[in-house]
Design goal:
Length: 199
Amino acid sequence: MPKRVDHDERRRTIAEALWRIASTRGLESASLRDVAAEAGMSLGQLQHYFRSRGEMLVFALDHINQYAAARVRDRVTAVTDTPSPRTVLGEIVAELLPLDDNSRNGILVQLAYFTLAIHDERMRHYAKEGTPALVSLLAGQIRRGIERGEVGADRDPETEAILLISMSDGLGNYVLLDVLTPAEALRLATAHLDRLFTP
């Protein structure tokens, strides 16, 4: 009886091979042939799942966003069953920072996509797609904090959400450049959240 192929698992394998290349050499090095070799399959096998490099890049970007969202959910539920807005935001911001090998590699891949998206209109569309959802998620928690009297009523949730994302991006870049250690970046992010949650 022929062996059943788990097609979803095969796509994940391809996406993870692409991430490994992107995190060490950048996306410009991620040709279909290179990714197939990294994934341990033939070019023909890879093309069974992705007809073009663009299709593969879009799938891998979506997959890394889902992976990051799952890591945030796991972090939040590991802390408490009924997390406060401050706890949720703290875990999300921690996940946006390169604090361990997994998050560091994920951020390197996202930076590779960012660089590609600056010059590629199609990739820019996909790279921007997740930002409104992240802003909405953060703003929703800030709004909950305002309702609970934990955040000043004069704070604009959307503005604060974008500032949190921008701060996390900047701190993450400084960690990648060895300007800050992961612990220093987390301390600064925590201090910002502490000030935000001082009504």
